[in-house]
Amino acid sequence: MTSTSVRDYGDQLAGLLEEAGFPRMPARVLMTFVTSESGDLTADQIAQTLGVSPAAVSGAIQYLRSTQLVRVGSLPATRRRIYTLNPAWYTVTLSRATMYGEIQELVREIPAELGPDTAAGKRVAEMADFYAYLARRFPEILEEWRELKNQERPSAS
Q1: Rounded distance between C-alpha atoms, residue 66 and residue 60, angstroms
Q2: What are phi and psi for residue 118, nearest 5 degrees?
Q3: C-alpha R_g of the chain
């Protein structure tokens, strides 16, 4: 069972994610994984830790699985599922850089009504430029992070 101080800390972290636009319950479940000792939890353990219904946990897990933040497995000799935090959970968005390229391409298909001289057209063009920048930089940032992590903690790689 998670201590009250750890649960409160996880809720504070989840609150920050929520403020940044992350859905509330998936944020709480994600931070439950992050603050757990093993990073492996059953839905019952998550529900008990957070004091929420299994249905709330199920929806959050489904969201976290779809974003590749959590993986599913099964407990040996049982039919119960166990969920595991992706070891590099915080880099998942960086490793999905192709999504930014796709956004950039779609944004470049600006309808004629949003011409380059309109305020909306300028916002859309700026968004396209921003996503082009992200698509270029994310692989570099991810590689820099891996190198830094390996330098600081060679045994953790």
Answers
A1: 10
A2: -90, 155
A3: 20
Distance CA 129, CA 125 (A): 6
| Distance of alpha carbon 85 from alpha carbon 64, whole angstroms | 9
pLDDT band for 157, please (50, 70, 90 cuts): very low
pLDDT digits (tens, 9 = 90+) for 75-97: 888 888 999 998 878 777 665 55
Residue type, 52: V
pTM score: 0.71
DSSP string, 68-105: TSEEEEE-TTSS-EEEEE-TTGGGHHHHTHHHHHHHHH
Cα–chain center distance at 8? 20
